[in-house]
Amino acid sequence: RSEKKGEENAILTSFNRNFRSRNDGNPQTMNFLAAPEIVTAMAFAGRLSFNPMTDTLLDKNGQKFQFNPPSGDDLPRQGFEAGRATYEPPSPTPTPDPSVEINIDPKSNRLQALEAFEPWHGDEFRNIRVLLKVKGKCTTDHISAAGPWLKYKGHLENIAENTLIGALNADTGKVNSAIDITNNKEDTIPEVAKSYKRQNIDWMVIADHNYGEGSAREHAALQVRYLGCPLIISRSFARIHETNLKKQGVLPLTFVNEDDYEKISSGDVIETVGVRDIAPGKPVQLIVTKPDGSKVTIDAKHTMSQDQIGWFKKGSALNLIKSINHVK
């Protein structure tokens, strides 16, 4: 319904993907989740004020009628199909064969070989630039949008063009906005991230509560890592996204004091203290240098296990697996 784009609207749906613009392409549409029975009854009424338990509707003859409460079995009487008869295990491959090549058309804009990320350099992070301070909700759909971008899921460079385009910049007050400190010009978040990547400038994100909530899409972690983000600090993380960041070699930190979120801004320069000797439960500090040269020290913490620290040191979980199995 393109004619409704930009207008406030509401959708009642039983489909549990209620990200902004997901159902009808309109960012102003509010999505409410309900059981299929409620959605069906409300569809007949055509209004959200309808109460299917007490209100009546008119049939084609103008007669009032009321829905009966739904009834049925909560679970299948015969149980669920085990599914084992349809499962075929893959052929065993005891040892990887490095001679096997996957041929991808170099002109393809949908498929691209995934290159291994560089391992951690083994020292503190220094001179990390805060590219973005996120304000409010930032789901994985804000970090890696779906819709027309889904065709690029096999091409990391192309899908990275949508990185954080739905995020609200707390400093500019705009969505998909960032200031490039190398030229002091405002641009989109992906463009600034690519500019920093070309110049070998590490950058990071300052995030609000429950950063990365929603879908478990791994591209939300892959993309920031690909564009040169080794570190994200938030008031809190959504659990699955936090793990996905760890798997891609990104260090997820949280503020010990959530109010310290207010002490960092886009363009600040960050240095870590404690990453070089990172260990489970061991705190980390961030030394924040402001544009005027003043410094602020912020206490941070992480939830990295010893195994996850291994992922971080190798650059990703896949890198660690490759090193253990001696895969080329």
What does this protein structure show overall?
- One of its GO terms (cellular component) is mitochondrion.
- Residues 130-257 form the Aconitase A/isopropylmalate dehydratase small subunit swivel domain.
- Pfam families: Aconitase, Aconitase_C.
- GO terms for molecular function: 4 iron, 4 sulfur cluster binding; aconitate hydratase activity; metal ion binding.
- The longest helix is centred in the first third of the chain and has 10 residues, at 36-45.
- This protein has helices spanning 36-45, 140-143, 156-159, 189-198, 219-226, 239-247, 306-314, 317-325; strands spanning 9-13, 29-33, 57-58, 64-65, 128-133, 178-180, 185-187, 203-207, 231-234, 251-255, 269-273, 284-289, 295-301.
- Helix 5 (219-226) links the parallel strand 8 (203-207) and strand 9.
- It is 19% helix and 18% strand.
- The protein folds into 2 domains: 2-65, no CATH class; 128-325, Aconitase, domain 4.
- Helix 5 (219-226) crosses helix 6 (239-247) and helix 7 (306-314) packs across helix 8 (317-325).
- 30% of the residues are buried.
- The protein has 328 residues and is of the alpha/beta class.
- It has a 7-stranded mixed beta barrel with strand order 5-8-9-10-13-12-11. The chain has a two-stranded parallel ribbon with strand order 1-2. The protein has a two-stranded antiparallel ribbon with strand order 3-4.
